[in-house]
Amino acid sequence: ITVWEEESFQGKRCEFLMECPSIMERGFRKIRSIKVESGPWVGFEYPEYQGQQFILEKGDYPRWEAWSGNSGYRTEHLLSFRPVKCAVRMTAPTGSHLPARILGCSLGLKFKLKHCPSSFCFVHWRATSQAGVP
């Protein structure tokens, strides 16, 4: 994620690969435009992941309207952000050698959601991963 202190990708700029609990600790006063290269990320109105939250998917956010949309909540800047962590409970087809639980999405597996009447939602394995793991 790349952030700028001013709208329209102007002013002080910094790139991040990991979470940032307070942009002010990096010498910024605020974040007013963002480019997300891969995501999703969550941007927060205040430091330490506090206040209104905004999901930031891959794309450009030149002004506050781009991340807050039509929510009616006007937040003209963000002060902290972090990537969305992926944790899934997974059930594999019978005979598969996949582990029953995988934490994180580092294998690049393809999943589909299936609603179960037991009020639990499970993520089912659908195909081979991009890494070639069946």
TrEMBL record:
Gene3D superfamilies: Crystallins
Domain of life: Eukaryota
Family listed: Belongs to the beta/gamma-crystallin family.
Name of this protein: Beta-crystallin A2
UniProt entry keywords in alphabetical sequence: Eye lens protein, Repeat
Claim: Cytoplasm is one of the keywords in the record: no
Lineage: Eukaryota, Metazoa, Chordata, Craniata, Vertebrata
KW Metal-binding (keyword) present: no
Domain Beta/gamma crystallin 'Greek key' per the UniProt entry, residue ranges: 1-38, 39-85
Function as written in the Swiss-Prot or TrEMBL entry: Crystallins are the dominant structural components of the vertebrate eye lens.
GO molecular function, one term: structural constituent of eye lens
Pfam families on file: Crystall
PANTHER family per UniProt: BETA-CRYSTALLIN A2, BETA/GAMMA CRYSTALLIN
A single BP term in Gene Ontology: visual perception
Subunit structure: Homo/heterodimer, or complexes of higher-order. The structure of beta-crystallin oligomers seems to be stabilized through interactions between the N-terminal arms.
